[in-house]
Amino acid sequence: MSNQSQACCRIPPVIGDDYQPKGTYIELNGTKTYVTGPANADKAILSVYDIFGFFPQTIQGADILAHGDTERQYQVYMPDFFERVPAKIEWYPPKDAESGELMGRWFNDNGTWPKHLPKVRGFIEAAEKRNPNIKSWGIMGYCWGSKVASILAGDEEPLFKAVVQTSPTRADAADAAKVKIPAMLLASGDEDAEEIKAYGEGLRVPKHVEFFDGQVHGFMSARADLKDAQVRAEYERGYKMSLEFFHRYLW
Q: How many C-beta atoms surround the C-beta of residue 83 within 10 A?
């Protein structure tokens, strides 16, 4: 990262418990959506959550993205892709056959990516109608959402100018070869390191790949134990890196 982009980002203190959101919930293209950041911002970020939906850690992350860049603030939109039916956090990682079956059934009913990809353009159009100042978009994908972000970054005419993926799920080098916008991957210690490295090597765009060894899958979203000082520090580091990346490439 450039020194200029590093200087831009002073994220607020991370709250370990009982986080109070800075944004609000609206209806966007018929879908409940968390929105945060200046109402007249000319840059926006689509935040694609993990399978657990609207969790305080992920909401706090959206607020950090919206307000953590002292030079450039963003309007952040987090739609409820799962329409009030997220997975239950106690199902993952599966502790027994029953939780594994429940997770598999939920994914087949609610989590397949082709079901959700067509929704994105409608969310973007509705957000731009709500705030006509928006001129450019970035996308932040968490775990499940990272696959959404990766696929969309490979569109022939991408809707986004930069993509950040954290705890990437099913990272596929074939997807990486199609990516057309600057890309950052922030991987936990739970992902397959060789899979992540292969994805990074497949990228033909400006990129940054970072491993957060010792952190669990979902360390920047629902599974982050922010009462733990080390987890909180790595959560903060991940968001600072994300903001620096968007500062550099989201114009």
A: 12
